[in-house]
Amino acid sequence: MAPGGRVYKQKTLTGQTVSSAQSADESNKCTPATATDDTARFKRGRGKTRGKGLEKMKRALGKKMVIEIPARKGRPVKAVQSAKLSNELGIIARNFLALPNKWKERTVEEKDAALIRCHEKFEINLDEHYVKDSCEDILKNRSRQWRYKLKKMFESALSEEVARKIEVPELTPENWNRLCDMWSNPEHKKRCQVNKVNRSKLKYSHFMGSKAFVAARAEMGDTTSEGVEPNRIEFYKNTHYSNEKGWASEEAETNYNNMIDLKALYTSGESSMTIDEIVDAILGKKSGYIKGLGYGPKPNTNRATQRRTAELEDSL
Question: What spans are recorded as compositionally biased (Basic residues) (predicted)?
Answer without folding.
Answer: 42-51
